[in-house]
Amino acid sequence: MKVAVVYAAPPQPLQLSCQVEDGSTVEQAIAQSGLLRYCPEIDLKKQKVGVFGKFVKLDSLVREGDRVEIYQRITRVLDEDDDDDDD
Q1: Cα dist. 71→1, 4, 46, 56 in Å?
Q2: What distance in Å separates the CA atoms of residue 21 and residue 3, rounded to the nearest whole number?
Q3: What's the Rg (C-alpha) of the chain?
Q4: pLDDT digit of tens for each residue in the chain (87 aa)?
Q5: To which protein family does this belong (predicted)?
Q6: How many other C-beta atoms are found inside a 10 Å radius of the C-beta of residue 51?
Q7: Secondary structure of residue 61 in the 3-state scheme
Q8: Which of 2, 16, 48, 62 has its CB surrounded by the most CB atoms within 10 Å?
Q9: Long-range pairs for 52-61 at CB < 8 Å and ≥24 separation?
């Protein structure tokens, strides 16, 4: 079955299509797509994944036509004006 694997890599998102066997997991689809070769910074132990915008686990099964998404880790840098007190 055909699935797509997407990663919003700066400066441009990367989308790869691949064929996987019935009963394949999200993790297997990501591996099969070859995306990890292009984006070695991806750490599936730390980054969330989803299918069509809904968080799923790596062992979730994919279905024909699914779009598997690997999400960027969100980081926030606080500046001096961005503290917790209301002074």
Answers
A1: 23, 14, 10, 11
A2: 10
A3: 16
A4: 999 999 987 788 899 999 999 999 999 999 999 999 989 999 999 999 999 999 999 999 999 999 999 998 776 676 666 656 555
A5: Belongs to the UPF0125 (RnfH) family.
A6: 18
A7: strand
A8: 62
A9: 56/26, 57/26, 58/25, 58/26, 58/27, 59/25, 59/26, 59/27, 60/25, 60/26, 61/23, 61/24, 61/25, 61/26
Torsion of CA 8, 50, 59, 35, to 10 degrees: -20
Please name which of 35, 27, 16, 10 lies closest in space to residue 62, comparing C-alpha atoms. 27
Question: Residue 25 corresponds to which tokens in the numbers above?
Answer: 């997991």
The topology under which CATH files domain 2-70 is Ubiquitin-like (UB roll) (3.10.20)
